[in-house]
Write a structure and sequence with these properties.
The complex is a heterodimer of chains A (279) and B (407).
Chain A lengths: L24 E10 L2 E11 L3 E7 L5 H8 L7 E6 L2 E3 L4 H7 L1 E4 L11 H5 L14 H14 L16 H14 L4 E5 L7 H16 L3 E5 L3 H7 L2 E6 L2 E7 L5 H9 L20
Parallel strand pairs in A: 3-8, 3-9, 6-7, 7-8
Antiparallel strand pairs in A: 1-2, 1-4, 4-5, 9-10
Helix pairs in contact in A: 4-5, 5-6
Chain B lengths: L1 H7 L4 H4 L10 H6 L4 H18 L7 H10 L1 H15 L7 H18 L4 H24 L5 H20 L4 E3 L3 H8 L4 H28 L7 H23 L6 H19 L1 H11 L1 H6 L4 H27 L1 E3 L6 H11 L13 H18 L4 H29 L2
Antiparallel strand pairs in B: 1-2
Classes of the chains: A alpha/beta (279), B mainly alpha (407).
Chain lengths: 279, 407
């Protein structure tokens, strides 16, 4: 890792990988306008397999718009998206799901009245003999995924309304793993969580990285971001203004980039060969 | 023995599940989940005891209980439809009108047009399905609140059935087959055999499920509890059969009602469709994001509800030997009340179809018991109103008790 506090895009020393590994997900030159508002202008973004990227920025910086474009809710006006080097068109949320890009929104999208297994498999139920649900198999599968993620819950047969906020977040994330996600976007995963529950969720994110997923965390909470991510990408007024390696960056410098007090970071705004910096 | 099994099969549950992590459930939560039927059952027992004492035991005679069950068949079938719609978090106020309309369609076709009974019944069911389809399409695609759609439908169908009857206030049904539907009793062999077969199948599946979970290394409920569950179900089923057999036998209409409930229960709890119904009722947005076709589920459920209403209408016409232009004024409220008293939440996503039997029995007992005591409609309706308010208040209170604990 370079000693400079700003991770230059030439810090590719990922273990077991060549320096020019193609990112799991790469966006180049993304622009999006809503009427007269330029939400994103010429933004590049990339996340590698086994890497956690923190996407930060002030309100209106374009974080949500970028996430919506990746998850297919919005389409970019211009720019390209590559999934493992292959250009893809994400024309809708279902396309994103098919490509293995899963988004966990703040509201988690869980059915409180259904139990954990039912929520995990909702919309993707497995059958014994048509049309009977294969509860035994689904429950086994659910337990397997939850143990991989090291999730602790009272039982997979309790309604999720009885679980804590952190546990609910874990269930929402586990759902994406069950669907063979390759890229997971987490929108404010620790908002409104207590200290212990925040810890659970941060551990969960580390588990996702261990599983070789590409993880994007959108968050306002820099303490959480610094604890769990490998790189921080800062958006400001619709532009990517800085990229930091958490190993060498300080929260103060990130805040400076978010608020616009520092512009030196523009140097790596192209980010086209931005390297991951795990380990 | 259970120890040996545990050691042979290291359960995958150990690392993930630990019941100790569940905060101790409050009384409110228990009432909401596992023990939801207990207050309802107690209420029923209190009502039954009261009428048994005040009618000199007349209320509890097999003859009266047999009649009582016949009286609640239509309410039960309509309550089943209402339950499906309530699970979605919607309401159908047109069940009584649709039910009566479909009976009129059947009556007019057989008695005036001379159509064979089978075709006339089919026409009644198709009419019901169509009415439900229209309700469902309006609710699912135009997103009009179901309350308004079905209220309008109810008014419209009341007019339509008057038009179909063309001024006649009561059309007597003579067709032997239709009359036999709700008024016949099963032969003893079938009356005992059918429920017993169903019971054995049920036990078979419960045991099979237990064994499969054991083999898969999943947590199973204690064997004692499993046995208790089987014994309770067996006692209820065989007790009901014994009761009916000590009078005239098992009424056919009871077979229809329990058969339909059984079908809906299987559909709701064992298939993806049922899972989607609960999901839409619990969180429609989450269901949509999970890729569930929410409008389709809504249309299907409204269609099923009205089709069930049609079946209820046919059975009622058969039992009453006539169809009337007057829609029974308490039928709508009674059928929704039976579902709600049985514990189906008005807010969607919670409730079981079996519990509506308890709700229907409470309503039927009130009517039947007050009849035995020669009370008029005035008293009956006041008492029913009070009971319904208590049931809905209990629903709201339990809900709040659960919410207070927070998540």
């Amino acid at each position: 890792m370079a000693d400079s506090s700003i991770s230059t895009p030439t810090a590719p020393s990922r273990p077991g990988q060549t320096g020019v590994a193609e990112p799991r997900l790469r966006l180049t030159g993304i622009s999006k306008t809503f009427g007269a508002v330029q939400a994103l202008s010429n933004v590049d973004f990339e996340v590698h397999a086994g890497e956690v990227v923190g996407l930060v920025g002030d309100n209106g910086a374009g974080k949500s718009t970028l996430v919506k474009i990746i998850s297919g809710v919005e389409q970019a006006d211009s720019g390209e998206i590559f999934l493992e080097g292959t250009p893809v068109k994400i024309t809708g949320p279902s396309v994103a799901t098919r490509l293995g890009i899963e988004t966990v929104y703040q509201d988690l999208a869980l059915c409180d009245n259904l139990d954990v297994v039912a929520n995990l498999f909702l919309g993707h139920e497995e059958l014994d003999i048509w049309p009977a649900l294969s509860e035994v198999h689904m429950e086994r599968e659910a337990l397997r995924v939850l143990s991989v993620l090291d999730v602790k819950i009272p039982s997979v047969r309790v309604p999720v309304s009885l679980l804590s906020g952190g546990q609910r977040q874990s269930i929402a994330v586990a759902k994406t793993i069950l669907r063979q996600a390759r890229v997971v976007l987490l929108d404010e995963p620790t908002a409104a969580l207590g200290v212990a529950q925040t810890r659970q969720v941060l551990n969960l994110i580390k588990r996702l990285r261990e599983q070789g997923l590409a993880v994007v965390v959108i968050s306002h909470n820099l303490a959480d971001v610094f604890e769990v991510v490998d790189r921080v990408i800062v958006l400001r007024l619709g532009r990517r203004v800085a990229t930091f390696d958490v190993k060498s960056a300080t929260p103060e410098r990130v805040v400076a980039a978010i608020t616009g007090a520092e512009f030196g970071a523009e140097v790596d705004a192209n980010g086209s060969n931005g390297g991951g910096s795990q380990s | 023995m259970s120890e040996a099994v545990k050691q042979k099969q290291p359960a995958p549950t150990t690392s993930v599940e630990a019941p100790s992590r569940l905060p101790r459930p409050t009384v409110g939560q228990l009432l909401r989940t596992d023990l939801g039927f207990v207050p309802v059952l107690l209420t029923l027992l209190v009502i039954a005891a009261y009428f048994a004492l005040t009618t000199g035991g007349l209320f509890l005679t097999p003859r009266n209980l047999s009649n009582l069950v016949l009286q609640i068949t239509q309410i039960g079938v309509l309550a089943l439809g209402s339950t499906l719609v309530l699970l979605l978090g919607e309401i159908d106020l047109s069940v009584a009108a649709v039910s009566t309309l479909c009976a009129v369609v059947m009556g007019v076709l057989t008695e005036r047009q001379g159509m064979p009974a089978g075709w006339a019944i089919l026409a009644a069911l198709v009419t019901g399905a169509l009415a439900g389809l229209i309700n469902g399409l309006l609710v699912a695609f135009i997103r009009i609140p179901s309350f308004i759609v079905t209220l309008a439908a109810s008014i419209g169908y009341s007019g339509l059935l008057l038009y179909l009857l063309a001024g006649q206030s009561t059309l007597i049904i003579h067709d032997a087959f239709i009359v036999s539907l709700a008024n016949n009793y099963l032969p003893d062999a079938l009356g005992v055999g059918l429920p017993t077969l169903a019971l054995l199948l049920y036990i078979g599946f419960v045991v099979l499920n237990y064994v499969r979970r054991r083999q898969a290394g999943l947590r199973t409920q204690p064997l004692a509890r499993l046995l208790l569950q089987i014994v309770i179900v067996a006692v209820i089923v065989e007790g009901a059969v014994a009761l009916f057999e000590s009078y005239l036998g098992v009424p056919q209409s009871v077979v229809f009602l329990t058969g339909l409930i059984l079908l809906c229960w299987l559909l709701l709890t064992k298939t993806p469709f049922g899972r989607y119904v609960y999901a839409v009722g619990g969180n429609a947005e989450a269901a949509r994001r999970a890729g569930i076709n929410v409008p389709l589920i809504r249309v299907a459920v409204f269609t099923m509800c009205s089709t069930l209403a049609a079946i209820g209408g046919v059975l009622a016409a058969s039992r009453g030997l006539a169809v009337a232009s007057q829609i029974d004024p308490t039928l709508l409220l009674d059928s929704i009340a039976a579902a709600v008293i049985g514990g189906v939440s008005l807010f969607g996503g919670k409730g079981s179809v079996w519990s509506l039997i308890l709700g229907a029995l409470i309503i039927g007992s009130l009517e039947n018991g007050l009849d035995l005591k020669s009370q008029g409609t005035d008293v009956k309706e006041m008492v029913e109103g009070v009971v319904l308010v208590i049931a809905v208040a209990a629903d709201a209170l339990i809900r709040r008790a659960q919410a207070r604990r927070g998540r």
